[in-house]
Amino acid sequence: MNSMQLLPESASVFASQLDLFFWVMVVLCGAVATGIAAFVIYSAVRYHRVRENELPPQNQGDLRLEAAWTITPLIIFIGMFGWGAKLYFDIERAPNDALDVWVIGKQWMWKVQYADGQREINSLHVPVGQAVKLTMTSQDVIHSFFIPAFRIKQDVLPGRYTEIWFRATKPGQYHLFCAEYCGTKHSGMIGWVYAMEPAEYRNWQQQGAAEGSLASTGEKLFHQFGCANCHHFDDQGQCPNLRNLYGRTVLLASGDTVIADAPYIRESVLEPKAKVVAGFEPLMPTFQGMLTEEQIIALIAYIRSLGPPAGGETPASSGSAPRTGTKGIGAAGSTSINETVPGKK
């Protein structure tokens, strides 16, 4: 029989950090609670009234004592808040070199897609020592992606993307759960995470995918659904040029700006009139109900593959200077579109 564990196995960078934070909080809060309880009991015994008409001596208090028991806990708990805030921001901000993996929750399974085209159900293969970023969405109801050994849990919502990242620290096989009740077979929505040594992971990766990479699948869909008829790569189309779009700042017809990331592209595919790019007419039809979540992810991967994110540059085919962008879309690495506003020089 396995011995009882207070906490699951620790197998990620965050696991050890969160465990330490948890135990420090337990000890600190326990010490404070014990101290308060002891003081209350002592005071009740020491200063209880002996006679019914007894009047205790009046004490005006000690300012130093009051300042000590106010300022000391304040400093301690603000310190704990700062520590917790740092852990939170570290967990929420994935490194730039993180391995991108897409996850779709569906009653009652986890569907996993990799950039090279590999697909899995209820399994996730990751290399040890490599940051892995999961971009997740749900095909039906709210789910929650939970890997206890990595100390990560993230709600997976229909109609939007949520992200979480981790870095496995040791090889092994770890449980994967749905931690949000999602229907009658919720308890069966489980799987396994396989943390592998880098060489072993590369061998697994070389098995490849029969249908090609996720971006190549997206390219097929791009032509299959007629997107190329309007989105030309020479700025002559009726709709914006998508080359080098991903990660850019986009000026909208409303005057607002957005970053061309995965949520923006998803919304533009399903609700094209929600955020119309400045300088273009709202001609694009909706693909709501025509594309699955897997197909939308493939289209996003294809658009992302058309150029670098903000900060990168792609040389023009003629070998001249990099493009400075199209109307309504900022240049590579830009944070504004001041020079691309239609009608301004």
CATH topology of the largest domain: Immunoglobulin-like
CATH class of the largest domain, anyone?
Mainly Beta
Mean pLDDT score, rounded?
83
Distance between the termini: 76 Å
Task: Provide an overview of this structure.
By secondary structure, the protein is α+β, with helices and mostly antiparallel strands. It folds into two domains: 180 residues, Immunoglobulin-like; 127 residues, Cytochrome c-like domain (Cytochrome Bc1 Complex, Chain D, domain 2). 30% of the residues lie in helices and 19% in strands. The chain contains six helices and twelve strands. A five-stranded mixed beta sheet has the order 3-2-1-5-8, with helices on one face. It has a five-stranded mixed beta sheet with strand order 4-10-9-6-7. Strands 11-12 form a two-stranded antiparallel ribbon. Strand 11 and strand 12 form a beta hairpin. The longest helix has 34 residues. The chain is elongated, with a radius of gyration of 28 Å. The C terminus is likely disordered.
Kindly summarize this structure in a few lines.
Helices cover 30% and strands 19% of the residues. It has 345 residues and is an alpha+beta fold.
Secondary-structure topology with pairs:
Layout (H helix, E strand, L loop, with lengths): L12 H34 L16 H30 L6 E8 L2 E6 L4 E3 L1 E5 L3 E8 L4 E5 L4 E5 L5 E6 L4 E7 L11 E7 L1 H8 L8 H11 L24 E3 L5 E3 L2 H9 L22 H13 L40
Parallel strand pairs: 1-5, 4-10
Antiparallel strand pairs: 1-2, 2-3, 5-8, 6-7, 6-9, 9-10, 11-12
